[in-house]
Every structure is written in structure tokens, then in C-alpha cells.
Design a protein that fits this description.
By secondary structure, this protein is α+β, with helices and mostly antiparallel strands. It has helices spanning about 35-45, 65-70, 90-100, 125-150, 180-190, 200-205, and strands spanning about 20, 25-30, 60, 80-90, 100, 155-165, 170-180, 190-195. A four-stranded antiparallel beta sheet has the order 1-2-4-8. A four-stranded mixed beta sheet has the order 3-7-6-5. The chain is globular.
Amino acid sequence: MSFSNLPPKPPTRQIRGLQEEDGTTITVYQAYPSTIATAAVTHQRLDASPDFRTTRMTWIKPSWAWMLYRSGYSYKDPGQERKLAIKMKREDFLALLGRGVLTHGTAPPRPGPQQEQKMTSDSKGRISEEREENAASEENSRESKRKDRLQSLDVKIQWDPERTVRLHSLNYRSIQIGIPAGLIKEWVQDMIVSIELQGESVEEDT
């Protein structure tokens, strides 16, 4: 028996997504409640409904099958009953990936306060050391806050087992991209080209 005509095995990690023939856009998927989805399609703005939150991370998925799995074919959560196909500019999609940080693994340790210096019995020396320690503590606090601000703009990357349309797990992975709250407004206003409703009901499609 010959296996030469079998398709090649997909790489373990590969971004599989729908893009235009000219390569200018790529489609990602997200599930929302009807109030958000209907307004988004009507006005071509995700934030057209006041129910849409810009204060929390949102996860987009290039894989339609994985999005179905995540939302449980609309049965899992009424807040994910409508599926949207969101066309993004390809360059913006790649820019998000460029900011990506894996959700697993060990994060680099943050700098802690400086090691305490040995105190002398001299009262003036103690005061001087306390001032130095306070100054070092304030500097460390400012640095920690700066890093926190930068980390709040990190795009999260997560690889999960890809799924069939019947939700069976496959032996290769699909990417999820978490857009942080600090970038949500920019994503909504500048990166999205069009929004379409994917079927009135996923249950009917299956």
C-alpha cells in the first residue's frame, strides 16, 4: 500500500487562518451575546453596543473549529451565542503577534528592594542608611510600576489542541491571541476591516 498521496502532517504549531487572495486581511473569530453581535454587524464596530467592554482582555481565534469548541456550539454559555467573523488588516495581526508573550513558562523575576546594608551603632549612620533605603525603595517602586504598565500591553499567546467541527481533539495545536485591555480600543477602531455574523445559529449549521 502506498502512502505517497497522503497530505503532509500539519506542523504542531501553525497559524491556520482565512486570508484574502491579496493577503491584505486575515479573519479571526469571536463569540459574543446577541446584543453585542447584532450592533457590531449593523454598525461595523465591535463597541457599537454599550455591553462591549474595553476594560478586559479579549481572545481572538483564527480557527473556526476551535472557536466552536471554546463556545460549546452556543450551548455552553448564552454570552457566546453569536459567532462573528472579524476581518483584520494582516499587518496589524502580525503586529499583535510581534507583541506576543506565551501564557505558560516562567516569567523573569522583578527586581526586589536592594539588600539591606549593615547598620552601624551611630545614630547618624542609621538615619543616612534609612534615607538610602527609602530612596532605593521608591526607585524600585517606580520601576515596578513602569514594568507593570508595559506588561499591561502584552499580547497573550496560547496554543491549544486544534479541534474538528465535532469538537474532537487533534494532535496539532491552534493559536489563541489575547488582546489586553490597553490595546482593545486601538484594535476596535483601527485594526478591524469588517464584521460578519457567521450563521444565525451554529446549532442549525451542525
